[in-house]
Specification:
Radius of gyration: 19 Å
Largest sheet: 9 strands, antiparallel
Helix content: 25-40%
CATH superfamily of the largest domain: Electron Transport, Fmn-binding Protein, Chain A
Number of domains: 2
Order of helices and strands: HEEEEHEEHHHEEE
CATH class of the largest domain: Mainly Beta
Number of helices: 5
């Protein structure tokens, strides 16, 4: 058995990138708000390594409010075509401005403008209102770079547990669990 969950994650992600037809970096993000209400949504993995798993969002969104109240999250990668999934549980920290800026400039121009135009998770009266706000951002930033909005940035899930699930015949699945142990990891198996 491997003793490095990040090396195993990299290997599985590379296989997903080669064989999964859509968004191999898509992951379900589960949070809980201050009242204990859980919520889950799909986000895209934009960075990963031994320090954690990174995604970006509007920091005034519902998910950001939940993470501010309870800085813990669960992630789930499900690659149906590979018959695999990875579950990650951990604490959440904000990504620094420099790292958020570096990622933001890699986004398409319309995506950067959309980050300015959207009041993510807030009520919207009509689609036309949002489209008008987007058009206003096109005018505002015409002929210039689109900087990262101050309310937009990254979050890093620093894992405490990483579970690798592999489908097996007759529902006799294989489940490998890595649990943080100081600066390292311990590995074990779980019943399917």
């Amino acid at each position: 058995m491997a003793d490095d969950p990040f090396a195993l994650f990299d290997a599985w992600l590379q296989e997903a990138e080669a064989g999964e037809p859509n968004d191999p970096n898509a992951m379900a993000l589960a949070t809980v708000d201050a009242s204990g209400q859980p919520s889950v949504r799909m986000v895209l993995l934009k960075g990963h390594g031994p320090d954690g798993f990174v995604f970006y969002t509007n920091r005034e969104s519902r998910k950001a409010a939940a993470l501010a109240a309870v800085p813990k999250a669960g992630l789930l990668f499900h690659w149906k075509s590979l018959r695999r999934q990875i579950r990650i549980d951990g604490t959440v920290e904000r990504v620094g401005d420099a790292e958020s800026d570096a990622y933001f400039v890699t986004r398409g121009r319309d995506s950067r403008l959309g980050a300015w135009a959207s009041d993510q998770s807030r009520p919207l009266d009509t689609r036309e209102t949002f489209e008008a706000r987007f058009a206003a951002m096109q005018v505002r930033f015409e002929g210039q770079d689109v900087p990262r909005p101050p309310h937009w940035g990254g979050y890093r899930v620093v894992p405490d547990r990483i579970e690798f699930w592999q489908d097996r015949a007759h529902r006799l699945h294989e489940r490998r669990l890595f649990t943080r142990d100081g600066d390292g990891w311990t590995e074990g198996l779980l019943y399917p």
